[in-house]
């Protein structure tokens, strides 16, 4: 797929009721005390880049009461001379009735964008608090939060990190942007930051996991190798939620063909398929489409204009059957229908568009004509629910008081996307570390990071088939943020629990 549509269009810091923080150390020199950072965009607001506020709570998970402390804080990013370049906001949840941290897993969580904070998974997926939405993920009022009975805090402590210029996090106005805003720069400074956090909180002995969503999957795939090679920190697992392409090449016919299974899932959801396909369950219908995509559609598109005309018409007819679009429209696109056109076309006759990140959501455009929707129906809905909830939560419940704006989308562009080898980075990390397992989680109705491309990435990461027993994929009946649907919130968290328990080693790390 076109790389631009694989980068999540989503996107901490605050201030500044500070408890004294630990002094950071670099090898060979002491780091000077952090000074308030003047964030970009509003010189009248300053950020304390090294501060914490701790509160205590409990949550009932799976019927069990779990006591924990929440640390909402900031931790600096330094240059090689110890100068503070930025303050990153984080929220850290640690269960307080566990005495042995050495056996207690630590999960480090990132969201995507690039340019969004960790809000999405923190208050809608794995964290101890859950935003107010209905069972399918739509906003409700009054806004706010409540207990998350599915949180993974029962089995693992969780750190949510907001990268530079997202949420409350800010870079110094004099800091070089190229140190932060690019595939490899992002990975490098965050690996250093994680090292400091793990040292400050005495978590070197703990089994460690990274979880990333959307662009966060690019981030954590690169971090797996960077932590291993530059910080000598080895992981037990990486969870990729709605993964990007991870730098894995799929240009040409593969790119053109791979979205068809997603089209089929979306058309099935909206009852736009023929009766014989609609009467099948989603997961019973999709293998037929996947097999057609791999075995017939890719070879057909590969022949371009030299494909036999009768064969072209036959292929277009099959695509129409699986996508809910007309054969005429598919032929007009030379068997290569762009996702943006699909979102506009599928329900055009009914006056609706479908959402990019979650095609269960419907939009209404100014006019039915056109080649793409006016707006992302699902993202508008999500921002409606998330923005009040995270501000209420951080400021009122976690007591992190600040006049800074919480940026759901932060100024991180231009973003240097060159030299993205993160899929290969993750493969190398797995090859060198026999403990390292990877799980992919995808929503069938995600049109930005679609589920079949996620499978393809998994296949290409392991061309020799040597890592298959440590790679797994899970599908869910929702979109990009599959956990917004109540049933998938339960299933997704349970899959993470099973993954963590299954990747705690019982033998030495060797082949």
UniProtKB/TrEMBL annotation:
Name the domain of life: Bacteria
What are this entry's molecular-function GO terms? Answer: serine-type carboxypeptidase activity
**Any signal peptide, and if so, which residues?**
1-24
Q: Which UniProt keywords apply?
A: Carboxypeptidase, Glycoprotein, Hydrolase, Protease, Signal
GO term, biological process aspect, one: proteolysis
Which Pfam family, giving just one, matches this sequence?
Peptidase_S10
PANTHER family for the chain: RETINOID-INDUCIBLE SERINE CARBOXYPEPTIDASE, SERINE PROTEASE FAMILY S10 SERINE CARBOXYPEPTIDASE
This chain's protein is named Carboxypeptidase
Q: Which organism is it from?
A: Chitinophaga solisilvae
């Amino acid at each position: 797929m076109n790389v631009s549509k694989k980068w999540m269009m989503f996107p901490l810091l605050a201030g500044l009721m500070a408890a004294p923080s630990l002094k950071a150390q670099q090898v060979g020199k002491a780091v000077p005390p952090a000074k308030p950072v003047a964030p970009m965009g509003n010189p009248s607001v300053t950020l304390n880049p090294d501060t914490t506020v701790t509160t205590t709570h409990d949550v009932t998970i799976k019927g069990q009461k779990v006591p924990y402390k929440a640390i909402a804080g900031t931790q600096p990013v330094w240059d090689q001379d110890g100068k503070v370049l930025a303050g990153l906001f984080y929220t850290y949840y640690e269960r307080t009735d566990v005495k042995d941290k050495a056996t207690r897993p630590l999960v480090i969580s990132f969201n995507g964008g690039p340019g969004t904070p960790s809000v999405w998974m923190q208050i809608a997926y794995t964290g101890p608090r859950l935003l107010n939405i209905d069972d399918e993920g739509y906003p409700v009022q009054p806004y706010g939060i409540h207990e998350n009975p599915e949180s993974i805090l029962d089995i693992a402590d969780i750190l949510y990190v907001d990268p530079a210029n997202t949420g409350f996090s800010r870079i110094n106005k004099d800091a070089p942007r190229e140190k932060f805003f690019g595939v490899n720069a992002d990975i490098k400074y965050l690996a250093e930051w994680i090292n400091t956090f793990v040292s400050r909180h005495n978590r070197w002995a703990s089994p460690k996991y990274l979880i990333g969503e959307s662009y966060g999957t690019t981030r954590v795939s690169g971090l797996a190798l960077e932590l291993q090679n530059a910080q000598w920190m080895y992981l037990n697992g990486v969870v990729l939620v709605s993964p990007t392409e991870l730098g894995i090449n799929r240009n040409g016919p593969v790119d053109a063909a791979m979205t068809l299974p997603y089209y089929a899932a979306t058309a099935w959801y909206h009852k736009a398929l023929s009766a014989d396909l609609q009467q099948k369950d989603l997961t019973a219908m999709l293998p037929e489409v996947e097999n057609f995509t791999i075995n017939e559609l890719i070879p057909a598109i590969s022949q371009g204009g030299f494909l036999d005309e009768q064969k072209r018409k036959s292929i277009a007819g099959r695509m129409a059957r699986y996508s809910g679009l007309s054969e005429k429209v598919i032929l007009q696109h030379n068997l290569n229908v762009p996702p943006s056109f699909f979102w506009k076309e599928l329900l055009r006759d009914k006056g609706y568009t479908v959402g990019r990140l979650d095609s269960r959501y419907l939009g209404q455009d100014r006019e039915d004509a056109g080649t793409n929707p006016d707006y992302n129906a699902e993202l508008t809905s999500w921002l409606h629910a998330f923005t009040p909830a995270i501000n209420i939560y951080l400021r009122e419940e976690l007591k992190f008081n600040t006049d800074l704006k919480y940026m759901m989308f932060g100024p991180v562009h231009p973003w240097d996307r060159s030299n993205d080898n993160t899929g290969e980075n993750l493969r190398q990390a797995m090859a060198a570390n026999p403990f390292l397992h990877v799980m992919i989680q995808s929503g069938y109705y995600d049109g930005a990071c679609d589920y079949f491309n996620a499978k393809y990435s998994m296949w290409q990461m392991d061309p020799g088939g040597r890592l298959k027993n440590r790679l797994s994929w899970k599908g869910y009946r929702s979109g990009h943020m599959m956990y917004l649907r109540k049933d998938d919130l339960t299933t997704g968290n349970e899959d993470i629990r099973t993954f963590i328990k299954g990747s705690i080693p019982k033998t030495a790390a060797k082949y």
